[in-house]
Amino acid sequence: MKAVLLVFIGGGFGSVLRFGLAKFLNSTEYALPYGTFLANILGSLLIGIILGMAMKNNSLSESHTLLLATGFCGGFTTFSSFAYENHVFLKAGDFTSFAIYTIGSFVIGFLAVFLGLYLVK
């Protein structure tokens, strides 16, 4: 039960922060949904750092990992918004934004995880 509560609390904080970024940065004024993009990239970097710290000399407990990686990063990042925003690009025939957003999210997201892991070595 403790694990579920930790994930719930972390997820709540992550979701609220992602909502704030989306409200501030996702706008019809911009071609790309920068709030979702930033949340996914920062979340990737954070999960790399968190899991890297957890693996390094067990410097984070299982509870900390559940709260931060599973909960916070899980709530902060969002594949469902990413998928929907790409659907909107495709429906509008905006293949350039679709390609930039999709490729950029995957490539930079992976690199952010690797950077996070590298930073804690």
Number of helices: 5
Shape: globular
In helices, the fraction of residues equals over 70%
Question: How many β-strands, per DSSP?
Answer: 0
Strand content: under 5%
Structural domain count:
1
Head-to-tail CA distance between termini: 32 Å
Oligomer: single chain
> What is Rg?
16 Å
* Unreliable residue stretches: none
Q: Given the helix and strand composition, which structural class is it? A: mainly alpha
Largest sheet: none
Name the average pLDDT.
93
- Give the ordered list of helices and strands: HHHHH
Description:
By secondary structure, the protein is mainly alpha-helical. It has one domain. It is 82% helix and 0% strand. It has five helices and no strands. α4 runs antiparallel to α5. It is globular and about 50 Å long. The model has no long low-confidence stretch (mean pLDDT 93).
